[in-house]
User: Which sequence fits this backbone?
């Protein structure tokens, strides 16, 4: 049986098992949700729409991350309310994962609550230049690494090089062995528009560094596929394979003079067609690698 036939058979089976009502419910998840990470007693994922961030409740206050309020300030009000439902502690920090507005815009309610904003130094440089009216400037910056200790909790912030952006901080809770990494490790899905300003060669090195770190669970910046799951080291390995395969495939075509149109219109990566977003995201992947191998950028 071909791969496509398997996919169709699998989808049919899933629909039959779930029943029509459950299937409809799955298609329209609630607008937001707060979930405690299994195996921890103080690490939470706040999801609003299709973006999410981590927050950590410590004995001396709350560490929040990306406000995820681009074009929807109500998401951030909800985020603060959701934190208050699980902790009466003050919100001490907001850590930005990287500089993209879809993740960091809208932080004013956190600022009003007295939080200190932290980001990679390159993120602050960009934000100072752009003066986005909806994005709070970081109060403090990180160069290569910083450890935040608050009450009984330690959170490590590490810059592991260029990848999806030039300002990505990976956040690791060493005791809980949990990572929060945004956009440079999509879980079970093909990276799409986010390829546009990425650094594809260095990205691969960045993923290899993530594999050497000590962790068990990865919280991605968008719900993992399928079902909003968290990520594992296998997901990192799979993504590395995807980037390497996409890069090699486009490189061969680009050096034969096939960028942009023939590659963007005709090249496929069927090994990955079962990944979420394959059809819509693939053109962005091909365009980025055409930029690299067919243009030199
Ligand atoms: Zn991004």
Assistant:
């Amino acid at each position: 049986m071909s791969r496509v036939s398997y996919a169709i058979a699998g989808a049919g089976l899933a629909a039959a098992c779930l029943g029509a009502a459950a299937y409809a419910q799955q298609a329209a998840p609630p607008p937001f949700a707060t979930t405690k990470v299994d195996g921890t007693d103080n690490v939470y994922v706040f999801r609003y729409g299709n973006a999410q961030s981590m927050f950590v409740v410590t004995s001396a206050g709350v560490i929040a991350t990306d406000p995820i309020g681009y074009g929807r300030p109500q998401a951030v009000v909800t985020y603060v309310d959701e934190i208050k439902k699980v902790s009466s502690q003050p919100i001490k920090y907001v850590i930005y994962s990287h500089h993209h507005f879809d993740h960091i815009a809208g932080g004013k309610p956190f600022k009003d609550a007295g939080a200190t904003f932290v980001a990679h130094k390159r993120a602050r440089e960009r934000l100072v230049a752009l003066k986005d009216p909806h994005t709070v400037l970081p109060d403090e910056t990180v160069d290569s690494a910083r450890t935040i200790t608050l009450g009984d909790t330690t959170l490590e912030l590490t810059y592991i090089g260029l990848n999806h952006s030039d300002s990505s901080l990976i956040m690791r809770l060493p005791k809980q062995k949990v990572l929060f990494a945004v956009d440079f490790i999509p879980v079970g899905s093909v990276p799409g528009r986010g390829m546009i300003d990425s650094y594809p060669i260095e990205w691969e090195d960045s993923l290899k560094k993530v594999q050497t770190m000590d962790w068990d669970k990865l919280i991605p910046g968008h719900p993992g596929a399928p079902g909003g799951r968290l990520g594992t080291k296998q997901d990192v390995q799979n993504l590395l394979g995807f980037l390497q395969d996409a890069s090699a495939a486009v490189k061969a075509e680009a050096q034969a003079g096939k960028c942009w149109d023939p590659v963007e219109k005709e090249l496929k990566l069927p090994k990955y067609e079962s990944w979420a977003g394959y059809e819509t995201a693939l053109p962005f992947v091909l365009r980025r690698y055409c930029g690299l191998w067919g243009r030199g950028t």
Q: What stands out?
A: The first strand starts at residue 32 and ends at 36. Residues 98, 100, 164-165, 183, 194 surround zinc ion (CB under 6 Å). Residues 3-27 form the longest helix (25 residues). Confidence is low (pLDDT under 50) at residues 1-20.
